[in-house]
């Protein structure tokens, strides 16, 4: 082989080698660039995901903050409301304490008054016509028992005393009959009583054969004549709602 041919071959080999070397270098650079881009994209995606997570967390924190602010405002309003109620209750308690003090003072005055009222009522009953005297005096005793009972409050005691007075007042306009004992000549006999208010108080035996009238002036029973037996019997029937009301002929003491 001539020198020229050898030189050509060397040049050609050098060129081919150069192209081959250049091709390898180019391929290596593209791979690195591609890999770098992929890594950058992954890093960017990861960063974006972190940003998204941080944003979501910030939104949750913001919502939680707003909720807490709203709860705080609600609690403030509620606390103001409770404070108003407490102040009102304290004022009510102070008023009640003052009223209780007044009530205690009133009770100290009304309790002695009730005892005097019961004593006065008992004296009146004993001085009055003996209308259902046993029941009326038993009522007085019940009042005394109530006044000494710690389980009965003062207002109830007072109500019962006033009720007893009202019953005595009603006797003045009532017409009532009842059966009880009457002492006649030292012997107790059963009779029918009838009273027309405090105008007349009469008694008649159960067989209607004898009758008596209470003499307020002499404070004793006077026996009536036969002419009053039928009228007394009729008065008993009318008071017992066994006969229609009509004009009655009854003995009455003249006013002095």
What does this structure look like?
With 256 residues, the chain is α+β, with helices and mostly antiparallel strands. Among the domains are: 109-171; 175-256, no CATH class. Helix content is 66%, strand content 14%. The chain is built from 4 helices and 5 strands. A 5-stranded antiparallel beta sheet has the order 1-2-3-4-5, covered by helices on one side. The relative contact order is 0.05. The model is unreliable at 10-27 (pLDDT under 50).
Structural features:
256 residues; alpha+beta; five-stranded antiparallel sheet; 4 helices; rod-shaped; DUF3450 domain-containing protein
Rg over C-alpha atoms, rounded to the nearest angstrom? 59 Å
Order of helices and strands: HHHEEEEEH
What composes the largest sheet?
5 strands, antiparallel
Sheet/helix structural class: alpha+beta
Helix content: 55-70%
Strand order of the largest sheet: 1-2-3-4-5
β content, as a range?
5-15%
What is the topological layout?
Blueprint: H1 3-127, H2 133-147, H3 154-170, E1 175-184, E2 187-196, E3 200-205, E4 211-215, E5 220-223, H4 229-239
Antiparallel strand pairs: 1-2, 2-3, 3-4, 4-5
Helix pairs in contact: 1-2, 1-3, 2-3
Signal peptide: 1-27
Pfam family, one: DUF3450
Protein name: DUF3450 domain-containing protein
Task: State the gist of this model.
By secondary structure, this protein is α+β, with helices and mostly antiparallel strands.
């Amino acid at each position: 082989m001539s020198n020229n041919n050898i030189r050509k071959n060397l040049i050609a080999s050098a060129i081919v080698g150069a192209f081959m070397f250049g091709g390898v270098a180019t391929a290596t650079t593209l791979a690195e660039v591609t890999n770098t881009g992929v890594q950058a994209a992954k890093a960017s995606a990861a960063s974006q995901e972190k940003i998204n997570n941080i944003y979501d967390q910030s939104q949750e924190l913001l919502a939680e903050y707003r909720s807490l602010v709203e709860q705080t405002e609600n609690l403030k309003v509620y606390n103001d409301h409770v404070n108003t109620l407490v102040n009102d209750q304290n004022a009510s308690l102070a008023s009640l304490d003052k009223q209780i003090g007044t009530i205690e003072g009133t009770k100290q005055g009304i309790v002695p008054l009730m005892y005097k009222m019961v004593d006065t009522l008992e004296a009146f009953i004993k001085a009055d016509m003996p209308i259902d005297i046993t029941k009326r005096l038993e009522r007085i005793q019940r009042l005394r028992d109530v006044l000494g009972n710690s389980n009965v409050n003062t207002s109830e005691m007072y109500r019962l005393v006033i009720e007893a007075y009202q019953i005595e007042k009603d006797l003045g306009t009532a017409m009532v009959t009842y059966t009880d004992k009457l002492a006649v000549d030292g012997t107790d006999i059963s009779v029918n009583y009838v009273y027309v208010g405090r105008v007349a108080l009469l008694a008649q035996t159960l067989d209607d054969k004898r009758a008596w009238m209470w003499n307020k002036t002499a404070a004793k029973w006077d026996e009536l004549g036969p002419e009053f037996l039928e009228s007394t019997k009729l008065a008993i029937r009318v008071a017992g709602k066994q006969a229609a009301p009509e004009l009655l002929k009854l003995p009455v003491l003249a006013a002095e």
